[in-house]
From TrEMBL:
Start and end residues of each stretch annotated as Disordered: 153-191
Keyword Cytoplasm attached: no
Highest rank taxon of the organism: Bacteria
The keyword DNA-binding is annotated on this UniProt entry: yes
Record field: compositional bias (Basic and acidic residues): 167-176
InterPro entries per the UniProt record, alphabetical: HTH_HxlR, WH-like_DNA-bd_sf, WH_DNA-bd_sf
Domain HTH hxlR-type: residue ranges: 24-119
Name under which the protein is recorded: Helix-turn-helix domain-containing protein
Length: 191
């Protein structure tokens, strides 16, 4: 085994879930949202995905991992479990969870600029309730038309225009992916 920290050692170090020796708000936040899959679960919750089966199908996430991430987010007050049918719950963002939107958006935009390549990301977000006519969100999740930080519920997301797609990404065919091909208000239930 390569102990130098190079690629041969990557991914083989078990990591804890906390940062006990770090007296820092970022460390406390990462204890809740810093585990693998958590930000993607939150992204889908902002898109309006609420049910376990839909989250699992759209994310291709192992059942046990999704159960753990959802339990962590519920325990932290980021998501709330609500019954929707006998023996079935859905997961809805709380006020604390909604406050994560600017961070999630900014991280996605960073990925568009530095990790996706030509053409940027696959989604756009528009301030649909903008008094100045609306525009795609700019850095920091701010609407450039009115200068505000809109609430997630006043945003519409849409897929990248097909003419702008470079064709290198496979198109998914789960129910959530199909629903997200059309413009959709954030937080409105899917699919």
């Amino acid at each position: 085994m390569n102990l130098s920290g190079g690629d041969g050692y990557r991914g083989r170090v078990p990591l804890g879930k906390d940062y006990d020796r770090q007296d820092c708000a970022l460390a406390r936040a990462l204890e809740v949202v810093g585990e693998r899959w958590t930000m993607l679960v939150l992204r889908d919750c902002f898109f309006g995905v609420r049910r376990f089966a839909d989250l699992r199908a759209h994310l291709d996430i192992p059942r046990a991992v999704l159960s753990d991430r959802l339990a962590t987010l519920v325990d932290a007050g980021i998501l709330e479990r609500r019954p929707y049918a006998a023996g079935r719950d859905e997961y809805v963002l709380t006020e604390d969870g909604l406050d994560l939107w600017p961070a999630l958006f900014s991280l996605a935009r960073w990925g568009d600029r530095h990790r996706v390549g030509p053409g940027g990301g696959r989604r756009r977000f528009r301030h649909a309730d903008c008094p100045a006519g609306g525009a795609d969100l700019a850095a920091g999740a701010v609407c450039p038309a009115c200068g505000t930080l809109p609430a997630p519920s006043s945003l519409e997301t849409r897929a990248l225009d097909p003419d702008d797609d470079d064709g290198t990404r496979p198109e998914r065919d789960d129910a959530v992916s199909r629903a997200l091909r059309r413009p959709h208000r954030l937080l409105a239930p899917l699919p």
